[in-house]
Design brief:
heterodimer; A: 4-stranded antiparallel β-sheet; 14 helices; B: mainly alpha; MetI-like fold; two-stranded antiparallel ribbon; 13 helices; 73% helix
């Protein structure tokens, strides 16, 4: 994956226009497996319109892992659910484009979406305890997804479910397939969830915080498993997480979201070794470090913004420690462009600050070790 | 599992016994004198009342009367009244003060009437309640949903006996479209049985179903918001399957509890329905017995209802363990 930077921009605009976002990829021959361009997802509610995702663009290639990082309510889950068309169309407004393996998902009929789901792109959900049906046997739940997309008999579906359970490392899969989710441990449930996700051999796997509900030791096993399966099946993975340690371990590329927008993106090396956005600094700074006894946990001050009434200008400015260094109150009035700035940021970063590199190296890096 | 059932049965028996004690002593603590009642319009002199009292053993201490009665329920007894001795095998519920019929036989005749009413009405509850509830939940927030919720709430808030009386007056008496008070046991033929109960089924069914529409709707709205329904959708299966195979499956289990307890409570008789449509079931019998201070009949109806309530509770718990695999029955 490469997060798509705008190809040209001379003036600072309040909004990213579709013409400056994702142009490079839409014209690129071959194209990526998943290409999201200028995606907007809004939920009209009684209290106002929730701007869950605003002008998001990214792409993922086969065999690659993109991590989408951000706090709760940053739009990371909403944008991923949109890839499978899982939002209720009656209560959602969507625009932009989601090209999944050559099919446009935005505006696609329910029939068309059903053919893509599980077959081309599958999802692994955060909490397997609640994401698996409590009254259905695990094997049946996996077989159901397989039978939906293959003209085979039930026995073949069951056999496939057992095969998948075996593949994700569940011992005694014949017996396990006949059990209910509550008879599984947390880690086993997540393995079963992954088996369900991979049962139709999809090209894209979207994993929505797959390790959040698990013990730390089990987390590592699940991440290893995902990595192994990706190598074996060659699929692309979109990993949604707020855990930067996980990102460093498994992702190829990173996209940092804040207030429904991408604020910084690049390869893992670029973003984690040379972070350029003050929000990313905050995320890195709030990682607890071993051995720093007595130190309080650092957090980004303030709370994530309301998606109904986002702050004007840069959505992060009320929580940003550096906004005062930008002249003319630009941070409060204008949304920064998402773009690399030679000498300051080699990868796309959405910030008005002019001396990003200096500030990071002189002031921020020493404090976050 | 077996041990659990045995334990629950023991508990059930003690609850029924407690109900018996309470009812028996309340009867004697309250106003009304069965002996005076039996005199009817004919004025009895004190001596005559005393004789009646003696013949029913009402002159004995209440605790002795209760002991005799309770022993009879378990082991049967012989009842002497007015010089005659009548056999009363277990479960002996005594003889009606009023009609001198054995209460056990009376109940055996009346219980099928109540059961027949309930079986039709509860089928209608589900036949109307589940589809309308699912439909409304699936279209939550739309005009159809609001219409269904509004209609059920309106119907549900009308006192049941008013439309039941009107229905009975217009459609069984003034324009006898439906037969009235015409109960035939199922053994006389399905059509004959059903036609006699149809009026009661329709009225009770429609009114009772409104609650179920709302339970099912609320339960469906909740289950449709669950993560596992989203998972089901993400498999690419049809909306129909998501709705019925995944969401409804989970939504029905809380409805089952309400259904079971509702059914249990109704075994004691659907008093309005039985009285209005002149169907002589348990409720009708109990009300008449109360009116005439007919202690053995009152006790019989009460023991039956209490046994049904505790029994159904056990059944619901057992079925629940079957429906929801997470529930371990023990």
């Amino acid at each position: 994956m490469t997060a798509s930077p705008p190809t040209s921009h001379g003036k600072v605009g309040l909004h990213d226009s579709p013409s400056t976002q994702g142009t490079r990829h839409s014209t690129r021959s071959g194209g990526s497996l998943l290409q999201v361009t200028d995606l907007v997802v809004q939920f009209p509610t009684a209290d106002g319109v929730v701007n869950a995702v605003s002008g998001l663009s990214y792409s993922v290639d086969l065999g690659k892992t993109l991590a989408i990082v951000g706090e709760s309510g940053s739009g990371k889950s909403v944008s991923s659910l949109a890839v499978l068309g899982l939002h209720n169309p009656q209560r959602t407004r969507m625009s932009g484009s989601i090209n999944l393996d050559g099919t446009e998902v935005v505006g696609l009929s329910e029939e068309g979406l059903r053919r893509l789901r599980s077959n081309v792109a599958a999802m692994i959900f955060q909490d397997p305890q609640s994401a698996l049906h409590p009254f259905m046997k695990v094997g049946d739940q996996i077989a159901e997804a397989y039978l939906e997309h293959h003209r085979v008999n039930k026995a073949r579906g069951r056999a496939r479910a057992i095969e998948m359970l075996d593949r994700v490392g569940i011992p005694n899969p014949q017996r396990r397939a006949r059990q209910y989710p509550h008879e599984f441990s947390g880690g086993m449930r997540q393995r079963a969830m992954i088996a369900l996700g991979l049962v139709n051999n999809p090209k894209l796997l979207i994993a929505d915080e797959p390790t959040t509900a698990l013990d730390v030791t089990v987390q590592a096993q699940i991440l290893d498993l995902l990595g192994d399966l990706q190598k074996e099946f060659g699929s692309a993975i979109v990993l949604i997480t707020h855990d930067l340690a996980v990102v460093a371990e498994v992702a190829d590329d990173v996209l940092v979201m804040y207030g429904g927008r991408c604020v910084e993106s690049g390869t893992v090396k670029e973003v984690l070794a040379a972070p350029r956005h003050p929000y990313t600094w905050g995320l890195l700074g709030s990682l607890p470090t071993l051995g720093a006894e007595g130190d309080e946990l650092r957090a980004i001050r303030g709370t994530p913004p309301s998606l109904i009434s986002l702050p004007t200008g840069c959505p992060f400015h009320p929580r940003c420690d550096f906004a005062s260094r930008v002249p003319h109150g630009l941070c409060c009035s204008a949304l920064p462009e998402l773009g690399p700035r030679p000498g300051q940021s080699e990868h796309p970063t959405r910030c008005h600050l002019s001396a990003l590199q200096d500030i990071y190296e002189e002031e921020v890096a020493p404090t976050i070790g | 599992m077996l041990l659990y059932i045995v334990r629950r049965m023991a508990l059930a028996v003690s609850v029924v016994f407690a109900t018996m004690v309470l009812a028996f002593f309340l009867f004697f603590a309250g106003p009304g004198d069965p002996a005076l009642n039996l005199c009817g319009d004919a004025k009895c002199n004190t001596q005559r009342v005393e004789e009646i009292r003696k013949s029913f053993h009402l002159d004995e201490p209440v605790s002795k009367q209760f002991a005799d009665y309770a022993l009879g329920v378990v082991a049967g007894r012989e009842i002497t009244s007015g010089g005659f001795t009548k056999p009363c095998p277990a479960p002996c519920l005594g003889y009606s003060f009023k009609t001198d019929q054995p209460v056990t036989g009376l109940l055996v005749a009346r219980i099928p009437v109540t059961l027949s009413i309930l079986c039709g009405a509860f089928v209608i509850y589900l036949l109307i309640g589940i589809p309308t509830g699912v439909y409304a939940a699936n279209r939550r927030g739309t005009a159809v949903d609001r219409a269904i919720v509004g209609t059920t709430q309106t119907i549900g808030s009308i006192p049941y006996f008013v439309p039941a009386l009107l229905f009975s007056l217009y459609l069984t008496i003034l324009h006898p479209l439906f037969p009235r008070g015409d109960y035939h046991p199922l053994s006389e033929g399905l059509v004959k049985w059903a036609s006699g109960l149809l009026a009661a089924w329709i009225v009770l069914g429609i009114f009772g179903s409104t609650g179920y529409t709302r339970y099912v709707r609320a339960s469906m709205v909740e289950s449709l918001a669950q993560d596992y329904v989203r998972t089901a959708k993400s498999k690419g299966i049809s909306h129909h399957k998501v709705l019925f195979k995944h969401a409804l499956r989970a939504a029905l289990s809380p409805v089952l509890t309400i259904f079971g307890l509702d059914l249990a409570a109704s075994f004691g008789g659907v008093i309005f329905t039985e009285t209005i449509f002149d169907l002589h079931g348990v409720g009708y019998t109990a009300v008449n017995a109360l009116r005439t201070s007919d202690l053995p009949v009152i006790m019989g109806c009460l023991i039956f209802s209490a046994a049904m309530v505790v029994g159904m509770n056990l059944v619901v718990d057992l079925v629940y363990g079957f429906v929801d695999p997470r529930v371990k029955v023990s």
